[in-house]
Amino acid sequence: xxxxxxxxxxxxxxxxxxxxxxxxxxxxxxxxxxxxxxxxxxxxxxxxxxxxxxxxxxxxxxxxxxxxxxxxxxxxxxxxxxxxxxxxxxxxxxxxxxxxxxxxx
Length: 105
Prior knowledge:
By secondary structure, the protein is mainly beta. The chain has one helix and nine strands. 4% of the residues lie in helices and 51% in strands. The strands form two sheets. A five-stranded antiparallel β-sheet has the order 1-8-3-6-9, with no helix packed on it. Strands 2-7-4-5 form a four-stranded antiparallel β-sheet, with no helix packed on it.
């Protein structure tokens, strides 16, 4: 069963954002970026295009920041009990930016 803990849609941070959760949040985190961001991957920040999503594993460090003054994203904190490799079976990679070409805003 998927348990949604918190969710946000077109959540705005007008002054930008520099998120540094070194131990994650204790749950899975889905992010959909509406503007370009930089995500810490393999020890360095990598640019990620707008209209991309990113899925953090439970317990993974969550380190990302805006590239401009405003940061806008959709997000969902959730848990799955019991976890039975759902994302692997669906071939949805963890901690890999995926650009969505055909999305509805």
